[in-house]
Amino acid sequence: MVVMNKENVNIFVTVGSRNYPFDRLFRKLDELCEDGVIKGKMFAQTGTSTYQPKHYEYKDFISQDEFLEKVLWADIVVSHGASGSIMKALNAGKKVIAVTRLRKYGEHINDHQIQNNEAFAENGYVVAVFEMDELGKAFEAYYNGTDNTRPWKNKDPLSIVKMIDQFIEENDK
């Protein structure tokens, strides 16, 4: 069990660059900062979201080089449910909170991120968040060392794709 001192934790939030705002996530992060659940330093790449964070630094878009710098800087990466962003963080050995964009909130065209995040979480690689009231508990699990995740070991670069495909096949019946 690895306990983190949340005062010293660096957090990088990324939501990609597609034209789907994720204001719900950034509002909740501000709320968690205000409530003292999140401390330390946080930087967010907000994409096309219109909400402007009050308690942490942010930029709408960053370059691939900046993205990699932020991933390497972070202790925890908060990502939307995009496999590419999650894999970059896991490959860098980071703890990941995967927050699902949901169609019902206009955050994506469908709910495919539910299956992505379920697959990563059920295999023990991320803490998945499906509704924002779960986000504070996800941070606390990492801070307290009770997250039950395991490090990603990339022996087969296509293994995650196979794992997700298998999960979707098994649960699409």
CATH architecture annotation name: 3-Layer(aba) Sandwich
Assigned CATH class? Alpha Beta
Look at the structure and name the CATH superfamily: Glycogen Phosphorylase B
Question: Mean pLDDT, as a whole number?
Answer: 87
What general form does the structure show? globular
- Oligomerization status of the protein chains: single chain
Number of strands: 6
Q: Strands across the major sheet, in which order?
A: 3-2-1-4-5-6
Coarse structural class: alpha/beta
Secondary-structure element string? EHEEHEHEHEHH
Strand content: 15-25%
Q: Cα-atom Rg, whole angstroms?
A: 15 Å
Query: Count of helical segments?
Result: 6
Helix percent band: 25-40%
How far apart are the first and last residues' alpha carbons, in Å?
Answer: 37 Å
